[in-house]
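User: For a teaching handout, I'd like to show students what a predicted protein-ligand complex looks like in token form. I'll give you the sequence and the SMILES for zinc ion. Please answer with just the structure.
Assistant: Understood, here is the input followed by the structure.
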Amino acid sequence: MPNTSPSLAPQTAIAAFPAFEIVPGALSRGLILVADHARNALPQAYGTLGLPQAELCRHIAYDIGVEGVLRALCGFLGVAGIFAGFSRLLIDPNRGIQDPTLIMQLSDGAVVPGNVGMGMAERQHRIDTYYTPYHRALSGLIDEAERLGVRPVLCSIHSFTPFWKGVARPWHAGVLWDGDDRFARPLMAALEAEKDLVVGDNEPYAGGLAGDSMNAHGTQRGLAHALIEIRQDLIADAAGQLAWAERLSRILPHVLKEIAA
Ligand SMILES: [Zn+2]
């Protein structure tokens, strides 16, 4: 684990490990796709954060299937997307900086040795090197859209485990939202109209965590936004990811029209 202060962080290490990736697309289309938890990657210096390799393949490290859905959906719709290049175990980009779960020491039963007893300098290093560049890049995409005269809708994509503490979760997908239902309501209605889906309204989690990504970029900028959670077993392989991207590419243009109206 690097012990360097932010100003001493080697530039090569930063360059070698991208904090984010932007999937190019037309910002003029008025939709930006966001995935905070798409990757389970860790910079080399951190190894596995002291975890057995298998733990990095679990949901504690990332949202299984989301990167594939986002890439395919960007392609189908011709819209831009962005995802974080690092595992949420390194630092969780879907948390406010003051949130006590920003860097987890214990996640779903797994102690994360590389995070236990971490000092303030290391915490700041992760904020400066990974967290902030990702959020700055997302802000930059929104700024660029606004320069084109577009107020983009933000669609955040996550995935959830089929079981939690031994109990099966009945939803195929859930829509998380807070005070602003401009995007969430028509999105939920469109998903429910699919007939073959059980859709959660603020399930399996409630939206509206202060300082999370949609709060920081959507609520605080007054942009219509929602977070869609897809059950992981449905998008665990490429066929499932493609099927969900196709489904969302059918639905979203109608939803966007409703928001605009
Ligand atoms: Zn997530």
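For the handout, you might add this sentence: The domain at 6-175+188-260 is CATH 3.40.630.40 (Aminopeptidase).
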